[in-house]
Amino acid sequence: MNAPTSQASPQASPARIRVFDTTLRDGEQSPGCSMTPPQKVVMARALAELGADIIETGFPASSQSDRDAMALIGKELREPVLAVLSRCLPADIDISLRALEAAARPRLHLFLSTSPLHREHKLRMSRQQVLDRVAESVAYAKRHIEDIEFSTEDGTRTEEDFLHEVVAAAIAAGATTINVPDTVGFTTPEEIRSLFRGLIARVPGADKVVFSAHCHNDLGLAVANTLAAIEGGARQVECTINGIGERAGNCALEEIVMALKVRGAFFEADTGVDTRRLVPTSQLLQRLIGMPVQRNKAVVGSNAFAHESGIHQHGMLRHRGTYEIMHPQDVGWADTQMVLGRHSGRAAVEQRLRALGYYLEETELELVFADFKALCEQQRVVTDSDLQTLMHGAGDGDGDGYRLASLTLSDLGQRASATVELSDPDGRRVAETAEGDGPVDALFAALAAATGVQLSLESYQVHSVGLGADARGEASLSVRHGDTEYEGTGTSRDIIEASALAWLDVANRLLRQRRGTASEQLATA
Ligand code: KIV
Ligand code: ZN
Q1: Where Mn(2+) is bound, by residue (predicted)?
Q2: Which CATH topology does 403-524 take?
């Protein structure tokens, strides 16, 4: 593959790729992803901390909520460029310019469709009318604002000669960034690479602007196409956290950024993103919009650095590079996760037991490993507390923790109430009732009251495992206790019960640790 085409443009280094984040606009306008203005502010803060160069905050002409969000974000964030989207209509441009008054570094993002399909069926405009509208709109806006991005909507399905004419007209009228969206995710890496090369080589004034790629993911090619656009000379990428966006979404920010970091020598390009903020930012968005990413999502999915198979775990224990191309810490995970389950080998079980303080002779390890394999026939994942139970033997009153006997929920209208009955480590019954903002909140409050353990939740998710009659809910949560993050899982046919089991998984581990510390102190007293 050829080296990236270098483009003499206003940026300091041709290999510094600007990250234009459109989570709050293209992402937010897709089903299930809407955010209130205060939520957008929280997300915008995180994006600024992450190092996004440009944050697109919304489409002010479309709603009061987008105007309010822009005003709030503009008041707070002075460093990144703040952009808003606008149609090529004087009334829309005026509204957008008013919204941008709040921004320290404003950018107006104008767009108009250029493809024959859109011209004929959506706009009902001729080529000449499109050209005139682009020139007039950019020139109109230029009287009020310097930083103008122009997007040729459905650009990748536009006739090449006409695309060049439109881009030339936008540049002549004052556009400073030219974005060529693959609006419907139709292009291929080869095509988009040559599209950008052609534009940069042949359009008059191309050397005065930054070219930008905006790829949708309908065929799962958004990141590959964006990388190819960079090879073709694009120096700005438009992307969203977790890849949210219209239909199958946009190019995922975390993926494009890590592709450029891990394969920087190949692409001869990098971004200014602080990659350690990728996972926290992804998780923040998941919580804000209530849309978890799939476990195997690149970079930010919970399996992205998890290893279960014996061969992989064995390799990882010898040298991480055998199965990891990036460090989990570099993207914001605490560490690699060795998931113990049916596919795990003796080496991984031994290593986990050592981490828990158990140093076993070969014969003891054989016995525990046999128990471990038997347990794996009953459950998918073996947690630390399961291993401790194996070590101490179930029901001996020492290794055991709290066990769930029953739980009842009641709906109180705006609030919910939960009653839990547990058997404590000595086999006594404890029952507590608590209220909360919803069933899960009430459940966790009741469990805290019954066990005396206060857990501060960092994340909580429920997934469905299996299909049809076998389907079960798996709840996973993580909590921070001091400097340590604990993860717990619980599986049941009932998701509320699975959530209770996940909570108790963590609480029991903490209690065992406390008991271990107390007996160590007694022994040394
Ligand atoms: O996908 C697209 O074409 C867009 C433009 C409005 C930039 O989101
Ligand atoms: Zn888009």
Answers
A1: 26, 214, 216, 250
A2: Double Stranded RNA Binding Domain (3.30.160)
